[in-house]
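Researcher: Batch entry, complex prediction.
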Amino acid sequence: MFALVDCNNFYVSCERIFQPRLEGRPVVVLSNNDGCIVSRSEEAKELGIKMGTPYFKAKPLLDAHDARVFSSNYALYGDISRRVMSYLAEVAPEVEVYSIDEAFLDLTGMEQWLEHNRSSLTEYGRRLKQEIKQWIHVPICMGIAPTKTLAKLANRIAKKDPMHHGVLHLDSDARCRWALEQVGVEDVWGIGRQYAPMLQQHGIATAADLARVSDVWARRHLGGVVGLRIVRELQGVPCLEMIPPDGGAQPRHSVAYTRTFGQPLAAYPDILSAVATFTTRVAEKLRRQGCAANMLTVFISKSRYGPAPPPYTYSNTLSLPVATRDTAELLRYARVALKQLWQPGTSYKKAGVILTGLEPGGLAQLNLFVDSPHAEQRAQLMAELDKLNTRYGAGTVGFAVELADKNGCKGAWAGKKEMRTPAYTTSLPEVWRINIDGLLLG
DNA sequence: TCTGGGGTCCTAGGACCC
DNA sequence: TCTGGGGTCCTAGGACCC
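Model: Structure tokens for the complex:
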């Protein structure tokens, strides 16, 4: 048996931990740059606000209902997520952290053990739900079923129908069949924007309909083995296994840092400053992964929403002679790549730096290949930079090319973040101070 | 005026090898 | 006149997830 634990309206729930008076009110959290709505409280959903709606479109409705709106506060959400995941690691035999707000549990063997103790998986799920709420103040739901895809499906039903009190265990074939009838095909894990309309045109409306298609049909219409796995999983045949915490020791394939600018930018120094800053950020990520990269992509994009026709994005990929994790070296390549892309008189709205061809690479490998007597010192320099920036905050020490002009001006590209709450749990200056009878508590 | 960010996997097709 | 078979590696593109 697999369980899927999913935090309800996660970002909104994180904000409510520190502002309990927001309970019962419509609340939304915005994406980077205060662009789109990416988390909604139940009250906001009831207003008809859809996931991913641009904020400016929903603002009149939100204002009319006195809704609270927050910029995203990833330091906070990341920390709350870690608390939930470490709780799960203590109460479940095996945990796979699937996203910031979801985890799969492998409950093999649990059922017999619980029955032996006159309990059940449903009771177990309810206990987890109650304890996570009480200790971390985050509401969750849980679906339990013989496959991951069915656990996702059960979770969806548990979330929608209050009858289940947030926990649904599909403990028999009959219950699985019943559950499949409840869920539209568009809500099946793995069926997205493209496949859903196609399936509906073929008369496949529910998850139950999808579970009945033939293997050949699934392969032909749903992207080969991927579709086949979805169908089998719905039929109760496990095709997806738990992924161990180290990802099976598989290194990642890419790291990226991309951002929409706060305003359109045309001047080369402004765009160079952005691309340089993104390069240093992505290089930091790369070193945190313990990798080196042998390809670097820079892209810059025009607005997708203006009168201009596509293409909107211009990108340039360089193959590096030797894999590297040195910020200064990556900056040199990024500059070259950008120079070939930028067109005078054009306004750009977004840029990004993507590193691919990642290989596990530390100091030893650099020494082996780089014909430089300074390789070891350079690696040490990067380590010191990372140490300083971790301790005193990102960007404390950087490279001059990140600045847009000689006056040290930086950040014409910086996005909006006008409604961000404090990093209550991860930044000392932002920790609450409570003054009780003249006694200051940090 | 204002429209996010960062990943994954799979397939098909081309270049190349013996 | 008749022109094989079996691989690998890489990339682009298309789908998906949160």
